Sequence to fold (72 residues):
Amino acid sequence: SEYKTFFYNQMQKDSILHEGIKNTDFTINNEYFFCIKANKTFKNNSKYYYLVNNIDMGEENIIPIWLFGFLY
Fold:
């Protein structure tokens, strides 16, 4: 999806990305697990970070995906 492409492009210059394991989309530096979601309707797992479109503010392990645009 375009969200996965956006996240990959923002993170690949400074991090080591791998295809996610289990229910995740990406693993970064073999330590952090990220799931890309189009909206906030999903079952939250505290072991993962969720990057969500269409939200203005995050909380706990839920992060608005637009914030990763500042990393470029």
In short: Helices lie at 2-11. Strands lie at 17-19, 26-28, 32-37, 49-52, 62-64. The mean pLDDT is 93. DSSP finds one helix and five strands in the chain.
